[in-house]
Design a protein that fits this description.
By secondary structure, this protein is of the alpha/beta class. It has 2 domains: 137 residues, Rossmann fold (3-Layer(aba) Sandwich), CATH 3.40.50.360; 34 residues, no CATH class. It contains 6 helices and 6 strands, in the order E-H-E-E-E-H-E-H-E-H-H-H. Helix 1 packs across helix 6 and helix 4 runs antiparallel to helix 5. Flavin mononucleotide binds next to helix 1, strand 3 and strand 5.
Length: 176
């Protein structure tokens, strides 16, 4: 199956999923030739030669205020008549409902003549500066329960994406 992987991943979490997808697809076909594009959504990516031949486009995003980052959103908006697999990472996790809400929002960037072939999300670690910011808020107000749970979530996110996130991703891919 000819495919392309386009991802936006400023801190590398979503890139890890993108690489796993490429490994999986190349192993399935026994070749690296089916990959038409692997990389970031450069401005003219929708016109990259051969991309229109992709039978499936894997589009990866990081979560920015409950939506995909603007770069990936712009790419999704440029697609027509494509089969798209949406995948992404978010700093918060723990519930499929949360991921579903984000994925539904990201899917609104696709024109109705595209189809969503599959979707996958997992948690992704955040930069340590984020924890420092939480800590300084908590220092000023040690009873701030919300900040305590933000710190707990930050620590839970640290190992992600992990081995089981990759396994879950492969399971979703195997249903394609
Ligand atoms: C400016 C900014 C906004 C973010 N907004 C959210 C958000 O709304 N929800 C969430 O779960 N994570 C949010 N995050 C966390 C990132 O989505 C998460 O760490 C993601 O795995 C980063 O992916 P990347 O490593 O591929 O860049 C935000 C991070 C930054 C820096």
């Amino acid at each position: 199956m000819k495919y392309a992987v386009i991802y936006d991943s400023p801190t590398g979490n979503t890139k890890m999923l993108a690489e796993e997808i490429k490994r999986y697809m190349d192993r399935q076909s026994g070749s690296t030739e089916e990959c038409l594009y692997f990389g970031e959504p450069v401005p003219d990516v929708a016109n990259v030669e051969g991309l229109s031949e992709a039978e499936i486009i894997f589009a990866g995003f990081w979560t920015d205020k409950g939506d995909s980052g603007a770069k990936l959103a712009g790419f999704l908006e440029s697609l027509h008549g494509s089969r798209v697999f949406l995948f992404g990472t978010a700093g918060f996790g723990g519930s499929q409902e949360y991921f579903s809400r984000i994925l539904n929002k990201v899917a609104t960037h696709l024109a109705p003549d595209n189809t969503v072939a599959g979707r996958y999300m997992c948690q992704g670690k955040m930069p340590v500066t984020v924890r420092k910011r939480y800590e300084s808020v908590l220092e000023k107000n040690p009873e701030d329960e919300r900040m305590k749970s933000m710190i707990e979530n930050f620590d839970r996110a640290l190992p992600h994406p992990d081995i089981s996130d990759m396994e879950n991703l492969r399971n979703v891919l195997s249903a394609l």
